[in-house]
Amino acid sequence: MDWPHDPDGEEGSEGRRKYGHAVIAKKVDEEEDFPLDVAAFVAEYGDDPVRIDSETVVSVRDVFEGVDEEEFADFTTLHRALGETMRESGYWFYEGAEEFVGDA
Predict the structure, then answer these.
(1) Which InterPro entries does this one have (predicted)?
(2) pLDDT tens-digit profile of 65-79?
(3) What's the CA gap between 32 and 38, in Å, rounded?
(4) Which member of 38, 52, 54, 101 has the greatest number of CB atoms within 10 A?
């Protein structure tokens, strides 16, 4: 896919320092964007790249495909849903992640 910007450039994963959740989180303003309308967010950022690991880049749209919610009330709820979706979709490659995931 041709990305609208380099996933490792200033608008992407910042020289490969930001992956997955961090890339998406930088697009959200905790103070002004909530409640967050998922459809509007994906319409605006859906084609932006998200680096998953050193070899995998997917779009924001791909990450949100498994999200069932239409709206998120706050940042924490968004993060939890994205983490769950990313694990279910095979986009979560952190060793030991399952140790930190439990019933919230």
Answers:
(1) DUF5785
(2) 989 999 999 999 998
(3) 14
(4) 52
Report pLDDT for 56. 82
Q: What percent of the chain has pLDDT over 70?
A: 70
Residues 6+ apart with CB under 8 A from 93: 52, 53
Q: How many Å apart are CA 29 and CA 46, to the nearest integer?
A: 17
What distance in Å separates the CA atoms of residue 61 and residue 87, rounded to the nearest whole number?
16
pLDDT value at residue 76: 92
Token digits of residue 34: 């909530």
> H helices within 11-95, ranges in order?
21-25, 38-45, 60-64, 75-88
Rounded-to-integer distance, Cα 59 and Cα 38, Å = 15
Rounded CA-CA distance 64/49 in Å is 12
